[in-house]
Structure formats: C-alpha cells, structure tokens
Specification:
185 residues, mainly alpha, 6 helices, 71% helix, elongated
Length: 185
C-alpha cells in the first residue's frame, strides 16, 4: 500500500463523520441523527463497530490516486503547451492558469469516484453497500450526470488548492534552480 493509502486509512474515519454530519444538514434540526461530531463517532461505533469507520475506504484511495495523477500529469502537460505552443512566459500567470486547468482535469476524472465514495460513506438502509451495487443504482436511477454532483464546489476547492500547490512548487523550483533557469520542469 502506498503512502497515500496509509494516510487515507488514518483519515477515513474523520471523512465518514464529516460526510454524515454534512448530509444531516438537509434535515430539520429535530430529525438530525447526530448532535455533534463526537456523537457521530459514538453512534457509528455502536451501530457498525470499528469497521464502520472504514466504509468507502477503497473508493477513497482510488479517488485520491485518480485526482493526484490527473492534477500532476495535466499541470505539466498544460505548462508545456503554454510555454511551447502558446509562447507564454514561465511566470505566475502561466502557473495559475495551468494550475486551474489541472484542478479542472482532476475534478473531471475524480468526481465519479468521489460521488461513489460519498454515497458509500453515507448510505441509508436499503441502499447498496457495495461498489457493484451502488454504481448501477446511481447510473440508472439518477443518470450519468449524478456522478458529477458537486462539481462546481469541488472545482473551486481543487482549483484553489492546485494554485497554492503549483505556485509554491514553482517558487521552490525557482529557488533551487536559481533565477533565470526557466525552461520546462
């Protein structure tokens, strides 16, 4: 298991609690099953045991792998196109544009797995608890665009994250390579 899988193993319980707490926000206050995050942890443990905290772990690992691969590969590709084909300078505006493009790409490829992960973590009685069951359930009951629910919010989050990450990376590379090194990285 790669480092990302280990990190997700530690974070998955908090992700499950976050998703369940967010989902209950649609309910009237009197119908919300959890009074706090701690209450949510306690109720998951009581109802599902310790394994209840790792529901959706597989799709969570897949989601992170897909998003990381998409953003890293597409940033470099976008930067090569911007510098080589479009003749843009290797500066802040190019890095920001390419970072937003990489964030968009990451959301395009990661959203379907993100929706599946969220549905598994927040399943209700009667809903499928397996990957094989939940995909057709989403596809045939809600349609293919259901795999892109929350796309705009995800893009704003990942696009912003990518700008911070890639601009910082470019600054570090510039510092290590020295001023005027430029070129394709």
């Amino acid at each position: 298991m790669a480092t990302g899988g280990i990190a997700i193993s530690f974070a998955n319980p908090t992700d499950v609690v976050k998703i369940r707490m967010q989902a209950q926000g649609r309910l009237p206050p009197a119908e919300r099953p959890y009074t706090s995050s701690l209450d949510c942890y306690q109720k998951i443990l009581a109802k599902d045991g310790i394994t209840g905290f790792w529901v959706g772990w597989g799709p969570n690992v897949a989601r992170n792998a897909i998003i990381n691969a998409a953003e890293l590969a597409s940033y470099d590709q976008f930067k090569q196109i911007a510098l080589g084909t479009l003749g843009m300078s290797n500066g802040l505006h190019t890095h920001i544009l390419c970072a937003f493009g990489a964030g968009f790409n990451a959301v395009v490829f990661g959203s379907p797995v993100d929706v599946i992960k969220t549905r598994l973590m927040n399943k209700t009685p009667g809903q499928s608890s397996s990957l094989i069951g939940i995909v057709p359930e989403i596809l045939f009951k809600e349609g293919p665009l259901a795999f892109y629910k929350g796309f705009q919010a995800n893009f704003l989050r990942l696009g912003s994250w990518n700008v911070c990450m890639f601009v910082a990376l470019e600054q570090i590379k510039n510092y290590v390579d020295g001023p005027g090194a430029g070129g394709h990285h």
